[in-house]
Amino acid sequence: MAGAFGWNTSFPSMKGYNIIGKINMTVIKTNNNGQQKRFFLNKPIYFWVRLILGIIFALASIDKIIHPAAFAKAVYNYQILPDTLINLTAIILPWLELILGIFLILGLWLPGAVLLSNILLVTFFGALVFNLVRGLDIQCGCFIISQETTSNLSMCWYVIRDGIFLLLGLYLLSHIFSGKRKALTTSMKNQL
Amino acid sequence: MFWQTGAIIFLAVALGIVVNEIRPDRLPLVADWSMEAQLNVESGQNITISLDRAKRSFFSQKAVFLDSRPPEHYELGHIQGAQNFPWEGFEKYFDTVMADIPQDALIITYCDGISCTWSKDLALELFFRGYDNVRVLVNGWSLWVEHQLPIDEGL
Predict the structure, then answer these.
(1) Is A55 in the same domain as A146?
(2) ipTM score
(3) CA A14 from chain center: how many Å?
(4) Alpha helices in chain B (DSSP H)
(5) Per-residue pLDDT tens for A105-140?
(6) Same domain, A32 and A59
(7) Which residues of chain B neighbour A116 with C-beta distances below 8 Å?
């Protein structure tokens, strides 16, 4: 019944209105919910991966933006960048993460956003593995003296977590490139 | 693709720098992150201690050594007689560890690694709480072991 007067009626110009022309909010709400459900259920895995990665980037940036000094210290603890770049990184990187998060969620400038996300994820993953191998705990910038300490276990957990994020990023990148390749092949066929 | 990447980077740089300039807790764009610079207290005094001075204080028993690493690190080995005061758990350990240490005592904090921040954070917090004679032996554990100075092992 509800569907008969909602967004999917055969009278597109009457969306949200009942037969006598009054707005029927219940009908609109019910149909919006149904449509939203279909909207999300019909989305491909690519959409969900993009959404998850976008949310991760956006959420990760918020605390860093609020507490730049604490983030600068975290950058210092990685012991990779020269002193002159630590504050600049702490000032700019969180905003880059936030913009990438928003662009991934909204689907804006996707090729560029996905490429840049992957560059960041590879850098983060590489920095973690590098420090794990050389035995540096990124919580404090100090040496890990035993393989069994909790700091080493937490480092391993970070590597696994960032590895999963990187896999998500690589999936998006492969999707973008395969899409571009298909589009190129189709246009070449059409030209022939 | 590449112009989008460039534009996103430009946007992030612009936003980051502009927001940093207008916020009250702004960071300087470039700062001195050397451990020496980090260990300058407000009066301009530097609270690092050299290995030689720390060694002399150790043998004359004029200093209290505080190991700022977590207990599992401390238990594997520490400077002989040092007490464990993990920086990550400061409030928990403060009353117990500092109960018998007078405010004017020479306190030497250490952890492991040139860039290790635990000993620095511990020393600065103690300094802030009125322990004016606190010092940091930067890279303390490694230096101590390297120079084959007395340690307690595997407690």
Answers:
(1) yes
(2) 0.76
(3) 38
(4) 2-22, 35-38, 51-59, 71-76, 90-98, 118-128, 140-146
(5) 999 999 999 999 999 999 999 999 999 888 888 877
(6) no
(7) 5, 8-9
